[in-house]
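Sorry, explain these C-alpha cells?

___
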Amino acid sequence: MSGALFVFPTRIPTPDVDSESPPQLSADEDSGSSTNEPGSTSTALSLLNTASRELNTGDKRPAEDLSQYAAAAGRRVRLKLDNQREAEQFSRLSSSQRQVWTAIHLLKLQEHLEAIQPADAKWNMPDTLAAKIEHYTFAVLVSPALAFYVRGSGPLKLVMGILEKHPAWGYTRQVKNDKYKADIVEQRVKTRLTDRRSNIKDLIWLSLGPAHKPPVSDGSSSKKPEPVLLNIVQLCTAVCKKHPNNTPTVSLQMCARFAFLRHMLLQLLTNAVLAGKSHRKYWDLVDDQLDIMRKNTEPGMSTLVLTQMLEDDRRIHGDPDIQEEPQDVVPSTEQVIADRAADGVFVEDEDD
C-alpha cells in the first residue's frame, strides 16, 4: 500500500448508518502534493469535493420516516384531522422537499397577510375629506331638489358621487379601490346622514310648538329643548344654523320644501290613518309623497302643491315679518354642487 495512489470514483456511495467510519486518506494523499496529473492526490481531492457537493445538493440520502413522531406531536397539540395528515406527509419528505414545501407555504401565508387588513392598522381619514363629508351630508339633505331622503340610499349615492368627483379632497381612486378605506368613508357618510336626518326632524317637530311636544327618547342623556312655535323662515334659519359653517342660505325654494316636510310630520301626528304608525317611518312617508308628486305628469302640478303648502304653513304657524322674508340670494358654490347633484348632475369645483 506504501507509495500507491488511491483514486476516488466520481460518485461516492452513501454509507450505511451502521458502517464503520469512512476510509482515511493515505499519507501520500494527505501530503498536499500540488501535481494535477491524472491519478495525483490533488485530482483525488478535487473529485472528493465534487462528489460531496453532489451529495449535499442532490440529497440522495433516504429521508428518515418521522410519521409516528409527527402523529404523536399532532395529537398532543390537537391538530385538526386534515392538518394532522399533512404533517405526517411532511415528515416523510426529504430535506430538499421539505425546503420547497416550506417555501410554498410561506408564500401562501404572505398572500393571506396581504389580503387581511390588521384590526389595529386603522386608516386615518384626511381632515379635508372628513370636513367635506360634514358639509355635503348636510347640504344634500337641505337641498330643495332632493328626490328622496332615504329610499334607494339616494342621499348616500349623491354624497359619494360628489366626493368621487373631487379626488383632491381625499377620496382618490386609490382610496375608492381599497375596500377597507372605501368602507370607512361610506360608513362615515351613512352615519352623518342618519344623524342629520334625525336633527332635522327634531327641529321640525319642536317648531310645531307645545301642542306637539316630541316624546323623550329612551335612554337619552341629553334633554331636548322646549318646543317653540316657529314660522317657516325661522324654522329654515334654525336648520341652517345646525351646519358647522352656517353656509346654506334660506331661499324661497327651501321654505317651500320645509313647509312640505312640516306638513308631512303634522299629518303623521294628527291623521287618524297615519297615527298608528311609528314616528320612525316619517322619512318613508315623505319619500312616498315625493314619489307621488313626481309621477304626476300634469305640468306645474308639483310646484302648485308646494306653493299651496307654503301658504298653508304661513297661515297655521305664522307669517314672517317683511324683514324675515327670503330674498333672491345667490347660493354658495358648495350649495350649487349639492343642488346640482340632487338633480343628477355632478359638477366640479374650480376651487379644489
Summary: Residues 179-206 form the longest helix (28 residues). Confidence is low (pLDDT under 50) at residues 1-12, 17-58.
